[in-house]
Amino acid sequence: MKTVSLVGSTGSIGTQAAEVIAGAPDRYRVVALGAATSVDALARQARELRPERVALADASRAAELAAALPAGVELLAGPEALAEIATLADVVVNGVVGFAGLPVTLAALCSGRRLALANKESLIAGGPVVQAARQTPGAEIIPVDSEHCAVHQCLRALLGEKDMSALPHPPAMPVRRIVLTASGGPFRGRHKRSLAEVTVADALAHPTWKMGPKITVDSSTLMNKGLEVIEAHELFGVGYDAIDVVVHPQSVVHSMVETTDGATLAQLSLPDMRLPIGYALAYPDRLDTPFGVIDWSRLGSLDFEEPDREAFPCLDLAYSAGRQGGAAPAWLNGANEVAVAAFLDGRIRWVDIPAVISEALDDYNASVPGTVADVLDADLAGRDRALSAVERRSSALR
Ligand code: MG
User: Fold this and answer.
1) Domain of 42?
2) How far is the CA of 145 from the centre of ligand 1 (A)?
3) What is the distance, to the nearest Å, from the Cα of residue 56 to the centroid of all Cα atoms in its chain?
4) Looking at residue 208, what is its pLDDT?
5) Which protein residues have a CB closer than 5 Å to ligand 1 (ion)?
6) One domain for residues 134 and 198
7) Is the model's pTM score more than 0.85?
């Protein structure tokens, strides 16, 4: 029986993880749940899953949650609470949204836990600091992001189990490149000119994946794919020139690994996050029951095309920040979070998102982060520059 801590338990990843666990009650037991502010959903989950502890980041609502929890469940509240429950289980699922997931990632790794990582922002922004924490004995990252889960499975097939623990510096990996697939989002095939007036509802209408709003907007700009390029670099130790992106609208091929002799390994499955979640929980085993299987007789064609880098400039902004390294990914990520929030609030247009990030990156001047404080500084500076760029644009819109 593996114990599991679900951090960000009320979000899209957290609720799907709870479903996966409910399907294998003899293998997994949830010992801790945590969320930022969703008191009602958290109380409901606590009544269903009966964890030992529940964490709420928003301390101002602790009394309200305490009143709704079943007897005997310990409540932790405050900004440190989510990181606290990330030290308590065999597997920690980090499904927190955005940069706020960094303390959870670090707490899980520093306490030598398996981190089932859905929160890509913590790895991207905190790169050098997270890599150091990853060296803690017992610590490992199993990616829950579907593309990276696919690459993990392909590399595992190539390298064998024992080498997976040595990532991101495995011995003599016979890999020529990693190819990440992108659905292309709701605006695939649209010309740059036609994207000036798209609405929030348009951006949230993802064609293949059901996800939270932040990642869905990132998906529409291709920033999600750009962040995933950095994530792949951090996870697998592969250089940026050896990471490519191809648009694949069906979201059935979840990513590919090309070997030095020109063979390609790919992982295919239906677009359902419960597979990567179950993979990260069960690794090195596999879950016994699938969440849907491909019907080859009805699948039809699988299409692949080049991403449109002019209509979706966020992809190259991310490559550029990744290649700069140091704190540039943290700066980029902070700026993106501000730009996406401003778009969702109706303060800027969709086409302003890359412009805001690009302006923020023009001011990049941080050094390589050695501590969490350095990462926080870079994140704040990126946010600060992006906020100024948003202000200039939203006053022009008024
Ligand atoms: Mg993904």
Assistant:
1) 2-143
2) 5
3) 21
4) 81
5) 145-147
6) no
7) yes
Same domain, 117 and 211: no
Domain count along the chain: 2
Strand partners, 245: 180
Of 127, 176, 121, the C-alpha closest to 154 is 176
Q: How confident is the model at residue 397 (pLDDT cuts 50, 70, 90)?
A: low
Burial class, 240, CB count within 10 angstroms (exposed 0-12 / middle 13-18 / buried 19+): middle
Q: Residue 93 corresponds to which amino acid? A: V
Torsion of CA 236, 262, 295, 160, to 10 degrees: -50
Q: How far is the CA of 38 from the centre of ligand 1 (A)?
A: 24
Least confident residue range of 45-59, 158-172, 195-209: 158-172
* DSSP H helices in the chain: 12-22, 39-49, 62-68, 81-84, 102-110, 120-125, 127-134, 146-159, 161-164, 200-203, 213-221, 223-236, 274-282, 296-299, 314-324, 328-344, 352-362, 372-397
Residue 396 confidence (pLDDT) above 90: no
Instruction: Determine the distance separating the centroid of ligand 1 and the alpha carbon of 330, expressed in angstroms.
Output: 18
80 Cα to the center of ligand 1, angstroms: 27
Distance CA 334, CA 347 (A): 17
- Ligand 1 centre distance from Cα of residue 304 (Å): 17
Does residue 152 belong to any structural domain of this protein? no
pLDDT digits over 246-258, tens only? Answer: 999 999 999 999 9
